[in-house]
Amino acid sequence: MIGILDYGMGNLRSVQKAIEYLGGAAVVSAEQKTLDGCEKLILPGVGSFAAGMSNLRGRGLADYAVRRAQDTPLLGICLGMQFLLDESEEEGLTAGLGLVRGRAVRFTEGKIPQIGWNAVTSMRSPLFAGIPEGTQFYFVHSYYADTAPAFTLGETEYFRTYASAVGAGNVYGVQFHPEKSGAAGLQLLRNFMRL
Fold first, then answer.
1. pLDDT confidence of residue 141
2. pLDDT per residue over 89-107, tens digit each?
3. CA distances from residue 186 to 14, 100, 169, 179, 181 in whole angstroms, order as listed
4. Residue 38 is among the residues annotated as catalytic for this protein
């Protein structure tokens, strides 16, 4: 069973449907007792970093995610990936979960938000097993992860090279939306399910 953290924002149902399409079981919940029964956790996200972190804290899910990430695979998607970082520049500095060292920084070039398909390169994670280098995934974001190479699991070029996949220990994050990225995105979710 995969638990999808429900903090009142994000594309929760589309992620759940993708997991179920792959033959897995997923539950969307904010109840820690329900999530305790899950072998893996997903933190999706769309919207504002500050509002999302406020909701996570208000529902007790921020501390819960940090605690569970010590021994449970956790996947952050899009804004959910940014939550994994130390902080975000959006709306002033807002603290994140601090599971991956780094900061979410706003793009200063190009059309913002970046919307559409873009390649992921320098893939180095079990998440990308069976996915060819340079595969295109679907992105929608205005901020990117500014993190060290040690935490970078994949890179993307958009006026600069940035970390489009991050990780540390049991924690993984992707800036793109695997649930909207066709066969490659489904393969990534399948790989997460197999961790």
1. 97
2. 998 899 999 999 999 999 9
3. 12, 24, 22, 7, 7
4. no
